[in-house]
Amino acid sequence: MENRLFKVVNKTTTEMHNEPFRFEHALQEYILLHPELLRLSDQLHEPEITFCEKSSQEFRYDLVVNYTDSDDTAIVELKKEEIDDDAISQIQKYLQAEKELAPDFGILMGTSITKEAQDAIEKSKNLYAIVL
Length: 132
What we know:
3 helices, two-stranded antiparallel ribbon, 132 residues, single chain, globular, disordered N terminus, 24% helix, 5-stranded mixed beta sheet, alpha/beta
């Protein structure tokens, strides 16, 4: 993997790091500024973020997105690093447990993905992965 430097700006300092997002909140803020990153296909290309840090009785969802062109709803789980089998289990629990939002699918977003997680997502009918 190539080395890249990313500018990280905090309230009082500016630093350079070799990782794009040191915290999930930084990734979350970036997506709020660039919701087009959540475009998945020709049928799912109009994402509208409806909730940021939505809490249910059991879970806290990083983002909830409605695709206005298809009227589909997705729960988005952000990972500041790698998407792995634990992340897959986590989003599947969210999808099964959430009755109020009735999500159509889940999206995992991170900076890389394991081969096992990629295979699981390819086999799944209701999971997507976005690697930044």
